[in-house]
From TrEMBL:
Record-given protein name: Uncharacterized protein
Keywords tagged on the record: Membrane, Transmembrane, Transmembrane helix
Phylogenetic lineage: Bacteria, Bacillati, Bacillota, Bacilli, Bacillales
Residue ranges crossing the lipid bilayer per the database entry: 6-27
UniProt organism field: Salsuginibacillus halophilus
Length: 55
């Protein structure tokens, strides 16, 4: 296998991995508080429904 081709392939692969990692990191940083808030509200709704069912 040609070394130049391998270097180009490895470079594109590394760029893709770094791009995906950066996007995931930014999205988690931006949306993690929103997701946690929504999960908390969902749990509160679930517990409210359970209280209504038992009473």
């Amino acid at each position: 296998m040609n070394t130049d081709v391998f270097i180009l392939f490895f470079n594109s692969f590394l760029t893709t991995v770094l791009s995906v990692a950066a996007v995931v990191w930014i999205l988690r940083k931006q949306y993690l508080p929103v997701i946690k808030q929504l999960e908390q509200e969902e749990q509160e709704d679930m517990s409210d429904e359970k209280h209504h069912e038992h009473s």
